[in-house]
Amino acid sequence: MGLRLLITGFEPFRTFAVNPSWHAAEAVAARFDEARAELLPVDHAAARERLLAAIVRHRPLEVLCMGLAAGDEFRLELLARKPAEFEGIAGPPVLHGRWAWRSAEAALRSGGESVRASTDAGRYVCESTYWGLLQGGPGLGVRRGAFLHVPALGGRFDQARVTRAVIGAVAASAGVRLR
Asked: Which architecture does CATH list for 5-173?
């Protein structure tokens, strides 16, 4: 049997010296049985390739990808649009994630966080990675896949707060047990 949960985050990019999505992913993997984290590059093709290779290697039933979005809220991405960069890859123009959305949202809200459901994953590497997960994951055994945008660090958010919120959302919505 494979792994229960694969959780991903991205490397730093542009003006963001730290990407809180990756540090939160590492913390989830450390706190939950049957969870592993994978660092993805901020590159359309390379992120998709690394994600699919990690799915083949770990054989997770669930995959939660995370990325950084400016703002002061967590965003549950409900769907992904096929990016122009993947024109040569077969698949529909829009794919819908499968997750315990209400449970994740309730956990974030109960932790005092602002959260919203979103139908725009940003049309950048986050969206292309999410589309790659939803397009390729099911054929590799993934039963549920989702994308969560976390806020940038600064202002109201430090890494500890982002990590606590993500751990709470994963505990409420994924089929993993705390260590």
From this structure: 3-Layer(aba) Sandwich (3.40)
